[in-house]
Amino acid sequence: MNKKAISRIAVAAAAGALMAGCAAPQNPDPRDPWEGFNRGIYKFNDTVDRAVFKPVAQAYTFVTPEPVRSCVHNIFSNVGDLWSGTNSFLQGRGHDFVNTLGRFLFNTTMGVGGCFDVASANGARRIPNDFGTTLGVWGLGQGPYLVLPFFGSSTVRDGAGLVGDYAGTTYGYMGVDAIDNVRLRNSLWGLRVVDTRASLLDATDTVDRVALDPYSFVRDAYLQRRAAMVLGHKVDDESSLPNYEDDEDDAAPAAPAAPAPQPAAK
Question: Where is the region Disordered (predicted)?
Answer without folding.
Answer: 237-266
